[in-house]
Amino acid sequence: MQNRDETDGIITRAALPSDVDAMLACDAYAQGHASRGEAVRDAVGKGHCQVAIRAGQVAGYVLTHDDFFDYGFVSLVVVSPAHQRCGVGVRLLAAAEAACTTAKLFTSTNQSNLAAQRLFASAGFVRSGQIDHLDDGDPELVYVKFLP
Fold this sequence. Notes:
- By secondary structure, the chain is α+β, with helices and mostly antiparallel strands.
- The protein is 30% helix and 38% strand.
- The protein has five helices and eight strands; from the N terminus they run ββαααβββαβαββ.
- It has helices spanning 20-25, 28-32, 34-46, 88-99, 114-122; strands spanning 2-5, 10-14, 49-54, 57-68, 71-79, 104-110, 126-131, 140-146.
- It has an eight-stranded mixed beta sheet.
């Protein structure tokens, strides 16, 4: 299923195996970390990945899981630098919500990641808690969105 908003030209849909190379190409972290590619391929294979297409190219992707205390969890949102601040991240989170089968959708980010915190707030997520000691001196902030 595709989700298109004619005002922004962004299409979101379930990622396909044929999308993986383009997804990893827009992800700077993936360039130096083979484990990211493995995680993306696994998520795509399980149907836990949505991709955003903008201007005919992969603009970003979101990985989800459904095993966070029996709730949905967004484990990763990646937006290509060329498509940042164009609504791609918000649309990817909306696609994750649409695919979520639980009453709550959680996500998290480091306290130092202000861009992610702004993205989550703009997508309607609220702070839910904090996990200390994952990264020394940079707590993990947990967010939740209550779904209808």
